[in-house]
Every structure is written in structure tokens, then in C-alpha cells.
Specification:
Layout: E1 3-10, H1 19-23, E2 31-34, H2 52-71, E3 77-84, H3 87-97, E4 102-107, E5 116-119
Parallel strand pairs: 1-2, 1-3, 3-4
Antiparallel strand pairs: 4-5
Helix pairs in contact: 2-3
Length: 165
């Protein structure tokens, strides 16, 4: 049995997602772990003046999630990452989970819009029916107008229709 844990970065006070829209996308019974339940203070726009307290709360949230994962005695875990926060918070969660974690990003641009599940991990681990968010471009990368070599090219397969905050 695989565990499903929702990591909810409710850092921004504005435009918070409603729980029903997220629960409609994640598997039934998924554990919900919120940033604000781990000492994290929300701020109006999701961009804190000081990052260390935010990162500490995210670390506590992730430790709690890992403890829940072990308690479920799962054969693996899929992390569903959602919420409203500045991009560094999402980056930090991904960094702390590590490259081997199965992660699906639950995105809703604005309340009332469609909620989309975007798999961020390997094709084999993807959630059935969820479109891939990243793809690797086979070498050689087509020549561009760039005058300098590029080590990594990142492109989204999906249009981001609005800023997330």
C-alpha cells in the first residue's frame, strides 16, 4: 500500500485554496499536513520578510510527514504539494524531499478555477491520468540564438495561467 500525504503550504493569507478542491484531486484518505499547523505564520502575499522562521516551519512539517509515512508502514509514499506561497517555499520543499520522492503538484490558479494534478517525478511513478509536468529533450538541443552554451534547458509543458501566491 502506498501512502498519500498532502503538504499544504498555506503561507499566503490571500487567495487560499479551498480544501474541497484539493481533496477532489488527491486520493481518498490522504493525510493532510499544513504549514500553519507546524508553527508557520502566514503573511499577506506569501512572501515573508524573514525566511528562516518559514524554513524552520517547513522542516517541522516535513518531519511530521515523514513520521506519518513511517507510521502508515507504506510501500512508498506520494507527496501531493499544494498551497499559496512564494516560489522559494516550494523549491525548499522539493529540495528537502529529495530527488527520489514521488511528488505531484496540485495547482489551482485562482479559487473556483479547475484544480490540476501535475506529476513532477518519473514517468513510471506518475499518477494515472495526470499529465507529465516535465519532459527531457533528447540531445542534441536545437540551435538557438544564444551566443553562449547552456548547461540546462527547462521548459514547462503547461501554460501557467496566473501567478501563484
Amino acid at each position: 500500500m502506498t501512502a498519500d500525504i498532502v503538504l499544504w503550504l498555506d503561507v499566503a493569507e490571500a487567495n487560499q485554496q479551498d480544501e474541497a478542491s484539493v481533496c477532489a484531486v488527491v486520493p481518498p484518505g490522504a493525510e493532510l499536513v499544513r504549514y500553519t499547523e507546524h508553527g508557520g505564520e502566514p503573511c499577506p502575499d506569501g512572501l515573508p520578510a524573514r525566511w528562516p522562521p518559514v524554513l524552520d516551519a517547513i522542516d517541522r512539517m516535513l518531519r511530521d510527514a515523514r513520521t506519518r509515512e513511517r507510521a502508515l508502514a507504506a510501500q512508498g509514499c506520494r507527496y501531493w504539494v499544494t498551497g499559496r506561497a512564494a516560489l522559494p517555499a516550494f523549491f525548499y520543499v522539493g529540495h528537502r524531499l529529495g530527488k527520489m520522492a514521488a511528488i505531484t503538484f496540485v495547482h489551482q490558479a485562482r479559487n473556483g478555477n479547475t484544480t490540476a494534478a501535475l506529476s513532477l517525478d518519473d514517468q513510471v511513478l506518475r499518477v494515472p491520468g495526470a499529465p507529465p509536468y516535465f519532459s527531457l529533450t533528447p540531445r542534441p538541443i536545437p540551435r538557438t540564438e544564444s551566443a553562449a552554451p547552456v548547461a540546462l534547458v527547462v521548459s514547462s509543458l503547461h501554460d501557467v495561467d496566473d501567478l501563484m501566491y
